[in-house]
Amino acid sequence: MKTQPRTLGELKQSAWGEPALRLRTVKDEMRQNLLGQLEDRGPVFTGIHGFEETVLPQVVNAVLSRHNFILLGLRGQAKSRILRALVALLDEQIPILAGSEVNDHPFRPISKYGRRLVEECGDAAGIDWVPREQRYVEKLATPDVTIADIIGDVDPIKAVRGGHQLSDELTIHFGLLPRSNRGIFAINELPDLAGKIQVGLFNIMQEGDVQIKGYPIRLPLDVLLVFSANPEDYTARGKIITPLKDRIGAEIHTHYPPTVEHAVAITTQEAWTERGGRAVDVPPFIRQLVEEVAFAARGDKRVDRRSGVSQRLPISVLETLISNAEARAIRTHERRAVPRVSDVYAALPSITGKIELEYEGEMQGADTIAKELVRRAAGKTFDDLVGGADVDTIVQWFDDGGALKVSDVERSDACLKGFTAVAGLLDLVDHVGLAPKKDPPTLVSACELLLEGLVAHKRISRTEDQGYTRVRPDRNPPFNKGMPGAGPNLFA
């Protein structure tokens, strides 16, 4: 295996000494690597779903155009993930002058330290290698960020130890932006950055210089600048200065998953489902129901659309309902944890904490809104899976006085006995193919979904004390075909 060059002389004799690499900027580097991926027809970005025809082509165009760009989108729209995925377009590693704080290019050092090293050592100057992961620097913009954090500041200790004047460049403690030289510098929530910091960014982008403590410093940085922001902040609050906006080459709008399938793929990828203990088996219809909760919230007028409903909502809901199913399986000594609709209701805290309500919603209460969202999601999932299948037999059973109360802490086989009493219920599960006949945990989950769907469409009713009943239940129903002694019904 050929060793990497460790001195400037060795680097000159390697491929890095060729003009194509000697003069290449980071934007040229990313453009070249991206063109290679496009030519190979391989995926440019992995782990990003739902943006294949919308956002990602615009990102590709921005990189090919060598533009700095900004991603505008509501919370939970994968903005940070996209920015971090840009690292894959960088070379695996690059050479820098050994000891440089600003990743000085061995052939074009921008710092006084780098220039002096080359002057004093010549071809014997040492070379270090920086991996691509260390060439991505990210900063969350907050009002307390200072110019020293971003650009740098004078370090009196350096001045004393080195015997330098404070105006000497060697006394500078460099900030995040110079340290990201020859890499990617990302700022999240750009409008929250103070105006004077934005001026510093613009000046170094436009002129390549900056003043630190009143001393002008030339820093012709080689960096790709990328940003993220919420559209409301970006347009309404007006905190991005015009010269900086003018230097941003592309404004790319993100969005939430366009389909349930995309949303399921994202949640499956991000959620913690492999617990390393009891086996967990989440039925596909439960995964769909979880995503439908988020879709229902995004379309509900009582939920603040300007704030958005993050994709983190279904991720948290899925993790919480799995935990509830896991706890039940442990208590009842079942080998598998299979979530049910009741587990979705147990995950209400994961919903209420992630939605911002309008005035009408505040009046009704977050818990009430969350329960309605789950019920509507169950109805939508029911429609997609059952379609026009005949449910009259099931509804008639309840109309004739049948009632069923199910405990969310009961074993699957015991619950299945109660569902078996409902005429036509298991036949419908089998007809639409929701669960295998010899899989009680999944059968119970499917039965709960179908009954919850009928509740959503007001074909049957559900109350806390009586469970599932006819639409207008009698105060004292003639009989109860459910399980005697069942615990409190958490569906209500």
Describe this structure as you would to a colleague.
- The protein has 23 helices and 15 strands.
- With 492 residues, the protein is an alpha/beta fold.
- It has two domains: 8-253, P-loop containing nucleotide triphosphate hydrolases (Rossmann fold, 3-Layer(aba) Sandwich), CATH 3.40.50.300; 260-469, no CATH class.
- The strands form six sheets. A five-stranded parallel beta sheet has the order 4-7-10-1-11.
- Strand 14 and strand 15 (467-469) form a beta hairpin.
- Helix 13 (260-270) crosses helix 14 and helix 19 packs across helix 23.
- The radius of gyration is 30 Å and the shape is elongated.
- Residues 475-492 have low confidence and may be disordered.
Which SSEs are present, and which pair or pack?
Layout: H1 8-12, H2 19-22, H3 26-40, H4 55-64, E1 69-72, H5 79-85, E2 93-97, H6 112-121, E3 127-131, E4 136-140, H7 147-150, E5 152-154, H8 156-162, E6 172-174, H9 176-179, E7 183-188, H10 195-206, E8 209-212, E9 215-218, E10 223-229, H11 231-237, H12 242-247, E11 250-253, H13 260-270, E12 279-280, H14 284-298, H15 312-331, E13 336-337, H16 341-346, H17 348-352, H18 359-364, H19 366-386, H20 392-399, H21 412-420, H22 425-432, H23 440-456, E14 461-463, E15 467-469
Parallel strand pairs: 1-10, 1-11, 4-7, 7-10, 12-13
Antiparallel strand pairs: 2-3, 5-6, 8-9, 14-15
Helix pairs in contact: 13-14, 13-15, 14-15, 14-19, 19-23, 21-23
